[in-house]
Design brief:
Blueprint lengths: L4 E7 L4 H13 L5 E7 L2 H5 L8 H6 L4 H13 L2 H17 L5 H11 L16 H15 L7 E5 L5 E5 L9 H15 L24
Helix pairs in contact: 1-8, 4-5, 4-7, 5-6
């Protein structure tokens, strides 16, 4: 009998690549003994010290990412892991599959789909949860360094030390045995001492064509 492996997954709901990767890890968990623990990070927090260096379109996007991560953080603080995962799925379905870009629209819709109170949308308009958000963000970035983005995936190595990597960045999200095979490789490289990077130039944008809203 294999030992259940806990995978910590850090996400910002705004990132299409993170959501694609999350659909992969959910798929892999159907074929491998994986427990996914969801964590919130923030593209705004990641980039706040270098906003002037970003392309104009990306700089303008950053503040618009805050409402969703604040709501997700409020849910993380007040509910269980399964509920946070359910909200993330609902947010992703709205933003990335549904193409809804206005937080005033996609947050209430996602809360309803996730079975959560509508008043939680108010968390997106306040700094009340920012301290908890930054702490969660730092736990993820602390494992991989600040020169990466979202998602961050972390596991325990054979010595019981938590180790993480940025990514994997994939499109479309692998399904079935392909998802499990990728997990085996990601786990292997993440837990290999001294492993830092594999990369090639992206030639495709996010492809959600094999995904359907849950």
């Amino acid at each position: 009998m294999t030992e259940t492996k806990t995978v910590d997954f850090w996400f910002d709901p705004a990132c299409p690549w993170a959501w694609m990767t999350s659909r992969w890890i959910v798929e892999a968990s159907k074929l491998r003994d994986i427990h996914i623990r969801w964590n919130v990070m923030s593209l705004f927090v990641l980039n706040e010290d270098k906003l002037d260096e970003l392309p104009e379109w990306y700089r303008e996007l950053m503040p618009k990412t805050l409402p969703a991560v604040r709501v997700a953080t409020a849910v993380a603080q007040q509910y269980d892991n399964e509920t946070l995962g359910r909200l993330y799925t609902a947010l992703g379905n709205q933003i990335h599959l549904g193409g809804v870009k206005d937080p005033e629209e996609f947050i209430p819709a996602a809360l309803e789909k996730a079975g959560l109170p509508a008043e939680l949308a108010d968390a997106g308009k306040t700094e009340e949860w920012d301290q908890a958000l930054r702490a969660s963000h730092q736990r993820g970035i602390g494992l991989v360094g600040a020169d990466v983005g979202t998602p961050v995936v972390a596991v325990e190595n054979d010595e019981g030390e938590k180790v993480g990597l940025f990514g994997p960045v994939i499109t479309p999200a692998p399904q079935g045995e392909a998802a499990a095979k990728l997990w085996d490789g990601v786990y292997a490289v993440t837990t290999t001492p001294g492993f830092y990077e594999l990369k090639r130039t992206r030639t495709k944008g996010p492809d959600f064509s094999n995904l359907t809203a849950d």
